[in-house]
Amino acid sequence: MKFEAKKLVDKGQGVWIVTIDGKDWEFAVKKGKNKVASSIKIDGFREGKAPKELLEKHITPVKYLNAAVQSIMEKAWDFAKEQKSDVEPFSSPTPTPTKVSEKFCELEFVFDLKPEIEIGEYKGLKSKDLVKEDFKATKEEIDIAIDQYRDRFALEKDKDKDAKIAKGDVAIFDFEGFVDGVAFKGGKGLDFRLVIGSNQMIPGFEDELIGKKLGESKIKVTFPEDYTPELSGKDAEFVINVKSIKERILPEKDDELAKDLNLPNIKTYKELENSVKQQIIDQKTLSLKNTFVNKVIDMIIASSKIELPKSAINREIENLYKEFEARVANQKLTMKEYKKKTGLTDDKIREELFDDAKRKICSYLVTDKVRNTEKFEPTKEQIEEKYSKLAAQFGVDADYIRKTILPEAQIKEEIIREQIVDFLYENNG
């Protein structure tokens, strides 16, 4: 195989040209002929089993050369990547066969070039929005987390017939919802089981249930603004028929609870409490740091000179559009239904995704520039520490994670991302 690379500066694109000839192409052509032959149907014979002379009449050069190109394309791309060209892809390539004959094949892989960036100052940034909060775990947060563990072993006991629903109880009930007196789709349920206070239902629903007795009653709620389009912000009335109220009895907060949970390296309640506390601190640290660093990145983008090719933005818009489609599908809606209810068109949705697409690309370019300037590189000790933490977290051997779940290359990338976040956090604000 032969390799050539060039830049299409006016288009902001690059091209890798791979020529396949010799034995590589001979083998691909032979493979293409066999593939076409195996799919040919001739009356009186099983698929691909007709005599060779009959099959050859149906095996045209267009068919088998096209099959040959398809069979060699991945190998050609892998070969191109191995050449370590200074013309680097910023997007997934579009492969195109430009010359194909019995003797050779020429493939072009066209891609967006990485946009040039003149990065602004990324250290010592100050702003009233850059506030570093304390990473602490409150007693209430620890109690809530431990109660989630206690829930696993909760016992349930029927309450008296005249008892009222209280927070923490389990209520089993039928319900049907109405907006403006009309039942709405998905608003009906039978023998629905709900732990009061679990926040499983829309805001206000569980609070309205508190104090209700067995039998029929009505509750009124307002759907959140970010709910499905047809119900967003609307007032609703639910007819409820409470069939059962159960008191939940949670286990004591003691060493027996810690043992029953069978968590790695936790045998006492104090160890459980400390572990939960550390988990909350770690989660807060990650969340608050990321929020802070995102603000830093926005400031760096604002002071940097970045010229993005339109093709790169459009490609990212399409990626975000697919993610948006998936979120709409999760609401049990088709895009056609969503657009009808909101009055939005495809063009309008893509227009609204433009800023997000641009920001995502700029964020990548900024962090990539910081990465290459500061030359982050994980040490062997950091890699081993990461594997050890994962092993302790999941209760499996570190080598098992390395070999079957997360190869070392992925772990390195994860550590580098963490190093960039820590660097931007520690050097700003």
Automatic annotation (TrEMBL):
Residues 314-341 form a coiled coil. Its EC number is 5.2.1.8. It is found in: Cytoplasm. Residues 168-216 form the PPIase FKBP-type domain. Keywords: Cell cycle, Cell division, Chaperone, Coiled coil, Cytoplasm, Isomerase, Rotamase. Belongs to the FKBP-type PPIase family. Tig subfamily. This is Trigger factor. It comes from Spiroplasma tabanidicola.
